[in-house]
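Quick start: read one record
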Amino acid sequence: MGNGIQPAESCSSVLDALNNRPKTAKSSTRPKAPKRTALVLGAGGTVGIAFHAGVLKAMAEAGLDPTAADLVVGTSAGAIVGSIMRAGNDLDLVWAMAHEDRNPFAENQPFVRPEVVFSQGWRTPIGLARRVAGSAYVLHRTVIRWPAIRPPLSLQHFYRAGIGSVTEQRMEFANWAGEEWPDEHLALCSFDIVTGQRVVLGPAGAPRPALPDAMRAASAVPLLYPPVRLG
């Protein structure tokens, strides 16, 4: 019995035979699967929004139309840019919003307003302490995913996570992308702080909240922004 190792000459002859064998008619006439494209946009805050706007503009100038992608996937800054684009806004508008700091939806307003990026969510030192305590749980869940402990709703309401208010942010997201999900395929990635599992919002069979809430869920920075309750 051999040891399963072939001499080098024998291996070479087998490879040559495989490479030189004639192709069958079946393999040459096999129909090709239609090509599908996905545009994946990552995080980065306001810098990420500007980065994505520049990359999308460069793609368009190179003859690649990002708006024609079969699927757009985004998280954080990518979720914001992807939602704005899928809402029917052209790439020049996205560029103007990010690089010229111009808000086409509000006259004489910049794209990035301080109250949209961060607005104080507490009124008293005690209120701040309660929000910090609630945020500690969220930070804990992002690092340690076991065990999955869901605090009672009464505690969740008393110790609200996130030191910022998102009232202005949600209103602005609605101005940028609308309330309804676009007809084109859009998937926004988020995270369930209780189960520790990734959550994809938008595709068929997946949760589909109002689009501004999905944008918030995909860009909710722990401690800074409160988590979004879905369902």
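The beta strands are 38-41, 71-74, 185-191, 198-201.
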